[in-house]
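To illustrate the input format used throughout this study, we show a single complete record. The first block contains the structure-token representation of the backbone; no residue identities are included at this stage. The design step must infer an amino acid for every position from geometry alone.
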């Protein structure tokens, strides 16, 4: 993650080891977020060729971006980026970060640092295949732990398909993936590409929205809700059945209650082998039975049927209905969506009911792109039975489908907030909303403090967002993790609370759990994808301090969180060097049992065993030698 990777190396290296502890409170100047930009092609980076038409050109985009101050702060990069960070670009600080009321100060104060992974060849998106979706997903997976968010630069023509596909392929997503592109190349005098790309970088770096999104024309739309609606406008995309997740005007406004969060305690993974035997079939008056029959022939496994209005097809065509029924009986999944841009399929007409009776599944308000890619995803699950596949096609998997809420709970909400609003003489809708946004996070943190899952559930039912943060940027998950309430942590994770959110000091819930040595919570958070975000040097100092004070529980907590126990301080001394020098046998024991190396040399050329010999710590020398013998016996035994 960004904070761990030694940005601002020059500042770090100037500090004295004894002061290094202050690093863990993130008092570093200029904290950064890291974004990986996957550049697949599209108009955004194209150049006019000799024949006067646009075409992509290798390395053109990244080299040009380096010359544009709003995309790259050259002076800052020269001064602050380390040698291994040469291929990063870094955005400037400035007005662009203004008016982000929703973010805590830690997030708001960050620069966005990004690296461009350019595909070869760069593609016009009309040339993309399903395998290209798999490549993007795999690259995101490969780099997932090292970045705060991802931007995919993509042509607009098939962007809605890729966004929909990625939303399904990325399982248990905890970080933003933002697709963007442009209608005019970014280096033309007039271009929508600059704003689209800058907004995407800001969103991917600073806003922890765990969704696949499309950023276009100052709007952030849920990817699987978008369609390309206008070939000639900068507002190329619409999301007809879901308002934007965020709008970027003078104020950036995020509708946090609309954010879709994957629930559960599983890590991020990607599913890349999509089923290609799927198709889109659009009804029209007089469509022949032969056409439909031909379309449904093997190897076809899933068909999106685009019907009229609210999901109607002729119910006076038994020939047509029986072809659909036959196909459905032999296992083809047929999903009914409307040809209308807006609205959804319902079974309120006899003509719609006839399709349902023929085994056609109601696709609600899904876009054609979402319906097709959802079928492709579900059908590729080799271990699922046909029944399970049908069930999952109907389910809302990634926010692609509106599920009508059964209960009306807004009255209760109204009562609670109303009474406080009255007491404070607040009356306008906007003010009441602000009041609610201010009250709920504190109430949630208070409930998490005492492990009161019922209160949290009540607040959730009342419309509260369980990932919202209080004034210190702390979420209910931070608090429950610190207090050691395992069942509350479990509950919050199952409600989609993010393990990646950092508080105003830059700490995640995992850090809270480590500080309080709650091993089972650490396990749970790590299982859900949480990673250590301390800088290596800060981590080394923590480990060395714990080793020197025989604080085995802290060592164990860091170990459980995935810490490298050989992390070394400014003098290249490992926790084992320190444990040996301070004569802490229990620490030496623990470190050796957990893979610490005795052969690493510090800057003075001493290994841990040299230190023990110099100090004549015979017990410790014996401990290390016993470990050496044990390992060599094991090695010989396995040879
Ligand atoms: N043909 C281009 C593409 O989809 C269109 C664009 O990016 N505006 O790659």
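Output of the design step:
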């Amino acid at each position: 993650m960004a904070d761990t990777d030694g940005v601002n190396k020059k500042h770090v290296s100037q500090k004295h080891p004894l002061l290094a502890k202050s690093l863990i409170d993130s008092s570093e100047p200029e904290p950064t977020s890291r974004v990986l930009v996957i550049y697949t092609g599209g108009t955004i980076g194209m150049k006019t060729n000799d024949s006067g038409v646009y075409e992509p050109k290798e390395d053109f985009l990244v080299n040009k971006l380096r010359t544009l101050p709003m995309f790259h702060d050259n002076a800052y990069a020269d001064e602050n980026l380390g040698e291994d960070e040469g291929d990063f670009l870094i955005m400037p600080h400035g007005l662009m970060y203004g008016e982000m009321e929703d973010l805590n100060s830690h997030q708001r104060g960050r620069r966005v640092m990004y690296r461009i992974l350019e595909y070869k060849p760069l593609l016009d998106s009309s040339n993309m295949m399903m395998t290209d979706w798999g490549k993007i997903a795999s690259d995101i997976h490969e780099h997932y732990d090292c970045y705060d968010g991802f931007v995919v630069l993509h042509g607009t023509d098939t962007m809605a398909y890729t966004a929909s596909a990625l939303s399904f392929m990325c399982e248990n997503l905890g970080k933003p993936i933002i697709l963007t592109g442009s209608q005019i190349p970014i280096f033309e005098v007039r271009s929508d590409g600059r704003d689209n790309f800058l907004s995407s970088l800001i969103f991917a770096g600073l806003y922890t929205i765990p969704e696949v999104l499309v950023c276009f024309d100052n709007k952030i739309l849920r990817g699987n809700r978008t369609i390309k609606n206008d070939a000639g406008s900068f507002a190329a995309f619409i999301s007809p059945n879901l308002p934007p997740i965020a709008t970027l005007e003078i104020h950036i406004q995020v509708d946090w209650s609309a954010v879709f969060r994957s629930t559960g305690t599983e890590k991020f993974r990607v599913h890349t082998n999509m089923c290609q035997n799927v198709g889109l079939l659009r009804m029209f008056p007089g469509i022949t039975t032969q056409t439909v029959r031909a379309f449904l022939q093997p190897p076809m496994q899933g068909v999106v049927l685009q019907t009229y209005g609210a999901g109607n097809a002729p119910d006076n065509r038994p020939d047509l209905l029986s072809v659909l029924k036959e196909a459905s009986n032999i296992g083809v999944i047929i999903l009914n969506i409307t040809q209308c841009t807006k609205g959804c399929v319902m079974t309120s007409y006899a003509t719609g009911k006839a399709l349902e009776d023929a085994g056609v599944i109601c696709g609600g308000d899904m876009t054609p792109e979402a319906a097709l890619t959802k079928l492709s995803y579900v059908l590729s699950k080799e271990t699922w039975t046909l029944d399970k596949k049908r069930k999952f096609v109907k389910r809302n998997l990634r926010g692609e489908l509106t599920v009508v809420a059964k209960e009306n709970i807004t009255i209760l909400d109204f009562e609670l907030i109303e009474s406080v609003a009255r007491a404070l003489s607040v009356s306008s809708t906007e003010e009441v909303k602000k009041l609610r946004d201010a009250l709920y996070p504190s109430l949630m943190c208070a409930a998490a403090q005492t492990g009161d899952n019922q209160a949290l559930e009540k607040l959730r039912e009342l419309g509260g967002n369980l990932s919202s943060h209080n004034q210190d940027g702390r979420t209910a998950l931070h608090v429950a993790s610190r207090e050691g309430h395992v069942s509350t942590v479990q509950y919050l994770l199952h409600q989609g609370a993010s393990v990646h959110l950092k508080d105003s000091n830059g700490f995640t819930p995992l850090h809270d759990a480590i500080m309080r040595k709650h091993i089972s919570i650490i396990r749970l958070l790590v299982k859900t994808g949480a990673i250590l975000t301390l800088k290596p040097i800060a981590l080394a100092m923590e480990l060395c301090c714990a080793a020197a004070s025989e604080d085995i529980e802290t060592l164990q907590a860091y170990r459980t969180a995935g810490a490298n126990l050989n992390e070394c301080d400014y003098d290249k001394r490992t926790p084992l060097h320190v444990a040996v020098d301070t004569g802490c046998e229990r620490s030496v024991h623990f470190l050796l049992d957990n893979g610490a190396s005795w052969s690493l040399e510090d800057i003075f050329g001493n290994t841990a065993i040299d230190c023990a010999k110099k100090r004549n710590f015979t017990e410790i020398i014996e401990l290390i030698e016993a470990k050496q013998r044990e390992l060599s016996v094991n090695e010989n035994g396995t040879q």
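Structural context for interpreting the output: The longest helix spans residues 429-449. The two ends are 38 Å apart (CA to CA).
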